[in-house]
Amino acid sequence: MFRVKEGIVSNAIEKANKNKQSLFAAGIFFIIANLFAVYFINQERFLYYWDFLAYWNKYTYLSEHFIGDTLSTIETVFWSIRENDYNDLPACFLVPFGLLFGTSRLAYILSIVNIFALPVAISLVVLHKKLSEAQGHTSAFLFLIPIGVILLSPNFWDPILLGFLDVGGVFLTNLILLRYLKNPYSKQSMRDLLLIALLIPMLVLFRRWYAYWGVAFYFVLFIEICLTAFLTRPFDIKGSVKTLLKFLAQVSVSAVFFFTAAPTLARRILGSNYSDLYSAYRTSTNLFQSFEVVLRNFGLFYFALFVCGAVIATIDKKTRKFAIFLLAQWLVIFILFARTQDFDTHQLYLLLPPVLLFSSLFLTRLANAMKNFKILTISSVTLILFLNFLTAFTVKEFRNRWVPPQLLTYIRHTPLVRNDINELKRILAVLAKLLVDPQDRVYILASSDALNSNILDSAYLSFNSYKDVSKRIYKTHNIDKRDGFPQELLDAKYVMVGDPAQYHMNPKDQRVVGVPVKMFLEQTGIATSFLKLPYEFKLDKDVRVFIYKKIKPIRDSDAAYLSEMLRSYYPDRENVYKIPEKQ
Fold first, then answer.
1. How many angstroms separate the CA atoms of 376 and 372, rounded?
2. Would you state the pLDDT for residue 1?
3. What is the DSSP letter of 114?
4. Which among 337, 344, 353 has a CA at the least distance from the CA of 297?
5. In the chain, where are the structural domains located?
6. Listing from the earlier edge strand, what are the strands of the sheet with 543-550?
């Protein structure tokens, strides 16, 4: 009796000691991460737009409506999951933070740090601990290495500070890998198999492009199952068939769950040529150039840590299988995604977890190997990682003086500051005066960091005013292949034009902006139906802005000319640039 109780107590003490490390790691991350986020965001003076804004907007809406209109809010989330590419599901997890701390930009960024980034850090510590112990490293301070690596990773921080909440998907991938690592696949429990099968579609629902991670996971897992069966002697046909059937059942559960939860998104993913739709987002012409983009983002030093850690983990028999699995998945993800578009900063989360994990494993091995120079070694590496961090988030003068070219990250992200905030307020004030009729609408014929429709239609989030104006601003057609003919441009009573023409991509992919801008600046084509009003606004980067008012209906011949101009650049897809028939 007493022995049983002693055993229970000793197990409880052992578990508590193990949890202490995770709790201590969480505490360190919590303090440093929150302090850095507060410091950084408090320096910003900016009007956020597009991806910087998308989920802040959802976070604000759900937080403000959840208490007073709970059922309607839940219904909105439900239908967004079923129908939309960018659904409300990720923002739902942040709502408790919004209810407690509000919906300011700072509150939104801190919600990402505490709800998503913190669990990512803890799960990385757990993964690192399991692999380090398998390699024979058992120091009580092991957790400090992965916490330091993740806190000093520009690739980890850059999307968060820009307002992307995609880091939450990394937590889901870490959970999947922890389940996978628990047992060989043939011995996985039904509970773990089911959990993985549900987590993978949840990952895709969280952010659509995590589908690359899920596809790569199942592809590499299938290869592993086949190789294990063929390399095992004696060859067990019955056992191999049983394992394959288990795998097919797991994939089927994932597919059924995904198609049931998001039928419209599922059909769209299967039926869309994303490589074509997002060709404007790809400047690389081959995989080598795509890899160069990835390498520049990580920096040679960080990537070298990753490679060294991967080599060591592959050599070690106890971690070899898991290391090969992760590296194979990493390679498949890279190839599949690079064929579609270049990796943007938030999409590098597809590749980041193995980089953080293997870098931490290498530094752990290095610290244990350099017994006589441990403090010097750790201090030197920490200094370089800190320099890498400062390279990304400090001013240009520091980088020009101290940063070795190509050794460190190419990320450049200082606090976002605009010096034309008052001029943007003046634009909104003028629009509020002009848009007197409830049917009046304005089209923003610009698509750059200086001016675009999303800057103006979401300015109320920063100014706490002009919300009525935001509802009168048409969404601009920015990308030719994705957005098609700008019918709203013909319908608008007012058109706001940037001079020179404002692009955020290659102009040849934004003819839908450039062609009509030229017409307005030269007063030809559809612009002959508009009168230039006596307003001029001067924005950052020497951008001048003018407002035109429609004074007579647009002639059919002028509208047809615009359509023909756009269609001439894309003769293989004429229907996209035809003028939509009036219902």
1. 9
2. 43
3. I
4. 344
5. 2-283, 421-577
6. 473-474, 442-445, 494-499, 543-550, 530-539
